[in-house]
Design goal:
The complex is a heterodimer.
Chain A: E1 6-17, E2 20-32, E3 37-41, H1 48-55, E4 63-68, E5 71-72, H2 78-87, E6 89-92, H3 104-115, H4 120-131, H5 146-158, E7 164-168, H6 176-193, E8 196-200, H7 204-209, E9 212-217, E10 220-221
Parallel strand pairs in A: 3-8, 3-9, 6-7, 7-8
Antiparallel strand pairs in A: 1-2, 1-4, 4-5, 9-10
Chain B: H1 6-13, H2 17-50, H3 52-56, E1 60-64, H4 70-81, E2 85-99, E3 106-113, E4 124-125, H5 131-134, E5 139-143, H6 144-150, E6 157-160, E7 163-173, E8 187-191, H7 195-198, E9 208-215, H8 221-231, E10 237-241, H9 248-285, H10 287-295, H11 300-336, H12 351-374, H13 396-417, H14 420-450, H15 456-464, H16 472-502, E11 511-516, H17 521-528, E12 532-545, E13 548-549, H18 552-556, E14 566-571, E15 579-583, E16 596-600, E17 614-619, E18 622-634, E19 645-647, H19 649-652, E20 658-663, H20 670-680, E21 685-688, H21 689-728, H22 730-742, H23 747-784, H24 793-820, H25 823-830
Parallel strand pairs in B: 3-8, 5-7, 14-19, 16-18
Antiparallel strand pairs in B: 1-9, 1-10, 2-3, 2-6, 2-9, 4-7, 5-8, 6-7, 11-20, 11-21, 12-13, 12-14, 12-17, 12-20, 15-18, 16-19, 17-18
Classes of the chains: A alpha/beta, B alpha+beta.
């Protein structure tokens, strides 16, 4: 059996709140396989977003390890993590987080340009066309609807063909129709490219389409992975 | 509803440190320049007025450029006989001195004084002994420089007019010469009784004659002066009291402080932009609070009142800081101005200055804070729900208020300058400069928007310039305006230096000889041993133009060169090599009957003269009417002698005259030549033009250093606005940094983007300032000073580079907290679950 793409063991994350320590993630261990669609579900405040920031190396746990493609993320410096985020990991956020000063096309091109990819424009244009927003390529984020912004964000997450995409409530800010359309786009692209997808969501409908669902309650996994 | 909510106002200060700090510093900065200069000016003026008797050494001062008329001396004698006044004469002129029995010579400023001088103040001697007892016939009291330059000591002898004088002491301070700005030679005091024996004063020699009177009854000073004024020759003799006489130092300081106050006004305007920028950023941070208040039913006026109170408190604190800083700055003035102001001055803050400072602080804060505060009314309650809510439309009161604020700012500048015409020019110039800077900034930013840049960090930096909330335009405008003034002053100083000191023309005369008597010319030429050019000189006054008499007192009050002074006329039949005619067919027109005069173009600045106008000169008491026959222009500003008025030989050839000689003496030969002439012609003064130009350059450098110091305050205002702008866009920058890092950019990349953004702002300001300053300097050098323009590109570019580095530094310093934030921290607070 091939090793898992992502292996997390015994993750603990605490935050000081006033004079006491709040444990947001409490001993979480899980694996994510290549091409797998994993949903992290749970009530508000259960630590879902914190967990994916730990899995993606955006944050460091107080205890535990995270290995991505065999590399231990928790011991890497910010500078060592940067190329990994650029090439191996993609992100999609609930609030889109597009760079406001760049057009849709430039936003998608940006990670590829950082990597020094000479075909950045070509790849970005192809992705935008696939996402159905190529007509809005020259528009800036504030000129796009929420659904359009999220499609652009998905294109940006996939432009460098990462091994895993972390998505934090990607349809949370969208209406039902846009939400469906964005989810379909994400899943199509994920399957087409064999990318693993780790998604935080409240939606039972989305969870139903996942390969696997784990539920977080008070920072712990309530069902076995 | 209460108008003010103290608790709410107090809370606005907590957690809003950066912008409120910058607001406060901008108010302080605007006060700093104004209050310190006004306070300093007050201190100097008070001191000069308090010591006015000492500064003039008398109650009544009579002044002339030739010996006093019998009418005036008779009137003084009559007063003396009645015991109403005590009189002492002084004669001041330049003359060469040499050490007895050895080589060397030095041009000195000789002052021959009668017993009693000075009636007030003192000439302090190094030995501490009384001046009047030490200065006796056969002795001289000299400035330390004389000893140093000639290798003499007290007790040695020097030769003045060929006669030996014993050096009795060293003068360390002179009552009526409290400061020395520029002098062709150090002071030598001799007793008046020596004058007859020394035979230094010939016909037409340039001598300052003074008669200093001590009036027994102080209440009679005005009456005595009025009586003597009636007896004085109207055009040749001046009678003043110690209160009405304007001393050289006072005139200089008045003019210089006035000029500095113009720069202070400039700083005020730039700081005003800073006040506006920082307050706008501060209020933008409070947008949600304002929206919530409005959603809860608070009327616009109530909201505005709270923040007006916040601005007033900050303004008061800033003013207080500015006043305290201005006191410290005054402490700094004394070393800066040392030698330019009378000794014994102490920094002080008069109650009037403090009061004026608070009034100014309130006005400045109010005027510049008006628009940002008024915009609070535009915030809609819907801002709670939307990040970029539509603003309420601007109505008439906004534009009226804005216009009124602008008009009041203009009035403030006019009040500061206290001269309507000059104030309007200044205001026009400043507004013009700021408008040009704004236009230039707009042009560059448009260009930047369209620039097809491939390099990713540079492209991101360019995009950053247009980040919402970025004060890119105000920052570029402020830095450009301040830098333009600094660069232009520096370039002008260097242009003057290059023209007169560094590139002293190899063929230009380097020694000037003054007061030669016509009979001495043959012997002088032999003694000098180098070819020299000779110019006959006749001292005269301009008495009337086209029959309208010149009012000399009124003329003298003009800030520029004027007809109130004496002029040196000459006569010849041809143009000099460095002259050309701008009007008139020839130097003199054979078609004009009677006397005629050719004038230099500079005279037109004193009066709008034209060919055919009639000028009346008074030459040694004799009136000479002459028709203007031509107008000349100097083709370069070389250090060659030039004359405003040139007559045909037939008109002035027989007038009492001296001869001015100019010679080019090889380097290394100048001292021996001076020594030979000094030994053979004691009445002749020698001016080493190269050395004098270097001395003048040192003074100019010092004055422009002081000016630059004040202009730097403008740069500080620009940098404060930069910091304010960076802090105002902290959230946007943080977001950008997080995006970059989430997408895989290294910290170095993020740092590079922010550094490049700062560099672009600095570079844009620097380049615009460079272009404007070069244009201004070119205009002044070419059209006003008739000098060759030099761009001094390397040093100009160094200033641009330095500005760029500073803006990078300020930008990065303010961005560092952003770089330290981890992406996850930000995501938790913005998206978190």
């Amino acid at each position: 059996m091939p090793p898992a793409l992502l292996e997390a063991r015994g993750l603990v994350r605490t935050y000081p709140v006033g004079e006491r320590l709040l444990t947001v993630i409490d001993g979480v261990s899980l694996d994510v396989d290549r091409g797998e669609f994993l949903v992290i579900a749970g009530p508000s405040g259960s630590g879902k977003t914190t967990l994916i920031t730990l899995l993606s190396g955006l944050d460091r746990p107080n205890a535990g390890t995270v290995r991505l493609e065999g590399r231990e993320l928790t011991t890497l410096s910010e500078e060592q993590l940067a190329p990994l985020r650029n090439t191996t990991i993609g992100f999609v956020f609930q609030s889109y987080h597009l760079i406001p000063s760049l057009s849709a096309l430039e936003n998608v091109m940006f990670p590829a340009e950082l990597r020094g990819d000479a075909r950045a424009r070509e790849k970005a244009e192809a992705l935008l066309a696939k996402a159905g927003v190529d007509g809005r390529a020259a528009n800036f984020p504030h000129q796009l609807s929420g659904g359009e912004q999220q499609r652009v964000a998905i294109c940006r997450a996939l432009v460098n063909e990462p091994a895993v995409v972390f998505a934090d409530e990607p349809t949370g800010n969208l209406d039902t129709v846009s939400g469906h359309s964005v989810l379909n786009l994400m899943l199509d692209l994920q399957r087409e490219r064999g990318t693993a997808l780790v998604m935080v969501t409240h939606s039972a409908e989305i969870a139903a389409r996942a390969d696997r669902v784990i539920t977080l309650v008070d920072g712990r996994i309530s069902a076995p992975p | 509803m209460r108008l003010l909510h103290p608790g709410f106002i107090r809370r606005q200060f907590s957690g809003a440190g950066s912008q409120t700090g910058i607001f406060l510093l901008c108010v302080a900065l605007s006060m700093l320049a104004l209050v310190s200069l006004r306070g300093f000016g007050r201190s100097v003026n008070a001191r000069l007025l308090q010591d006015a008797r000492g500064l003039h050494a008398a109650d009544v001062i009579l002044h002339a450029h030739r010996d006093f008329s019998p009418g005036l001396t008779g009137a003084v004698d009559a007063l003396s006989r009645r015991g109403e006044v005590s009189a002492a004469r002084t004669w001041e002129f330049y003359s060469m001195v040499t050490p007895e029995g050895r080589e060397g010579s030095l041009l000195t400023n000789v002052k021959a004084v009668e017993p009693g001088y000075p009636w007030y103040g003192e000439v302090a001697l190094a030995s501490g002994r009384p001046f009047g007892r030490i200065l006796q016939p056969g002795t001289a009291i000299v400035e330390e420089t004389v000893l140093g330059r000639l290798g003499l000591r007290v007790g040695d002898r020097l030769l003045l007019g060929g006669r030996p004088l014993l050096i009795a002491d060293v003068a360390v301070r002179e009552a009526d010469r409290p400061v020395t700005f520029f002098s062709l030679g150090p002071r030598v005091f001799i007793a008046a009784s020596e004058l007859g024996r020394l035979d230094l004063i010939g016909q037409g020699s340039r001598v300052d004659y003074r008669l200093l009177l001590k009036v027994r009854d102080p209440a009679a000073i005005g009456r005595v002066a009025a009586g003597l004024g009636a007896a004085a020759l109207p055009d040749a003799e001046r009678v003043q009291t110690y209160l009405t006489a304007s001393s050289g130092p006072k005139r200089f300081l008045d003019n210089f402080l006035f000029f500095l106050s113009l720069i202070g006004t400039f700083t005020l305007l730039l700081s005003g932009i800073g006040i506006q920028s920082a307050l706008t950023a501060f209020l933008r941070e409070k947008r949600d609070t304002v929206a919530v208040m409005k959603a809860l039913g608070a009327p616009g006026g109530f909201v505005m009142a709270q923040y007006l109170a916040v601005a007033a408190i900050l303004g008061a604190l800033g003013t207080l800081l500015g006043i305290a800083g201005s006191y410290l700055l005054q402490v700094l003035f004394f070393p800066l101005f040392s030698g330019l102001i009378p000794g014994g001055l102490r920094p002080q803050l008069a109650a009037a200055t403090v009061f004026e400072g608070f009034a100014l602080g309130a006005i400045v804060t109010g005027l510049f804070a008006f628009l940002p505060l008024w915009r609070l009314r535009e915030i809609s309650p819907v801002a709670i729900f939307r990040r970029d809510p539509a603003r309420l439309p601007r109505q008439l009161p906004f534009w009226l208020g804005g216009g009124l604020a602008a008009a009041l700012i203009g009035a403030l500048v006019l009040w500061q300058v206290r001269d309507l015409k000059l104030g309007l020019w200044l205001l026009g110039g400043l507004v013009g400069l700021i408008a040009l800077a704004a236009l230039g900034a707009e042009g560059l930013l448009r260009l930047a928007r369209r620039l097809p840049v491939r390099a990713l960090p540079l492209r991101q930096a360019l995009r950053g310039l247009f980040r919402p909330g970025n004060a890119t335009r105000p920052v570029i405008v402020t830095l450009t305006a301040a830098l333009t003034v600094i660069l232009a002053i520096g370039l002008l100083e260097r242009t003057l230096d290059a023209q007169f000191v560094q590139s002293y023309p190899p063929d230009a005369p380097n020694l000037f000889f003054l007061d030669l008597q016509p009979a001495q010319l043959g012997e002088f030429a032999k003694t000098l041993g180098t070819p020299a050019e000779f110019y006959p000189v006749v001292v005269a006054q301009v008495a009337a133009i086209n029959g309208a008499a010149i009012e000399r007192e009124r003329e003298r009050r003009k800030p520029r060169d004027n007809f109130g002074r004496d002029f040196y006329l000459t006569y010849r039949e041809a143009l000099l090599a460095d002259e050309e005619l701008t009007r008139g067919p020839a130097l003199f027109d054979s078609g004009i009957a009677g006397a005629q005069v050719s004038i230099l173009e500079e005279v037109l600045e004193m009066a709008p003269l034209k060919i055919g106008d009639r000028m009346t000169f008074r030459v040694q008491g004799v009136s000479v009417d002459a028709v203007v026959s031509s107008i000349r222009r100097r083709t370069d500003a070389s250090p060659r002698p030039f004359f405003y008025f040139v007559f045909p030989t037939a008109v002035l050839g027989k007038a009492p005259q001296t001869v001015f000689a100019a010679a080019r003496v090889p380097k290394g030969e100048t001292l021996p030549a001076q020594n030979r002439v000094a030994a053979a012609f004691p009445n002749v003064s020698v001016v080493d033009v190269g050395a004098a130009a270097a001395q003048a350059a040192t003074l100019v450098a010092r004055l422009s250093g002081i000016i630059r110091f004040f202009t730097l305050l403008g740069i500080v205002a620009g940098l404060l606005i930069t910091a304010s702008s960076v802090l105002a866009t902290r959230r946007a920058r943080l977001l950008e940094a997080v995006h970059y890092r989430i997408l895989g950019a290294s910290s170095r990349f993020v740092l590079l983007v922010f550094a490049l953004e700062g560099a672009l702002v600095g570079l844009a300001s620097g380049v615009l300032a460079l272009v404007f300053a070069q244009a201004i300097t070119w205009g002044i050098a070419t059209w006003r000073l008739n000098l060759r323009w030099h761009p001094f590109l390397s040093s100009s570019l160094a200033v641009v580079a330095l500005t760029t580095l500073i803006t990078i530094g300020v930008g990065l310093a303010a961005s560092l907290p952003v770089l330290r934030r981890r992406p996850a921290d930000f995501l938790r607070t913005s998206d978190g679950s």
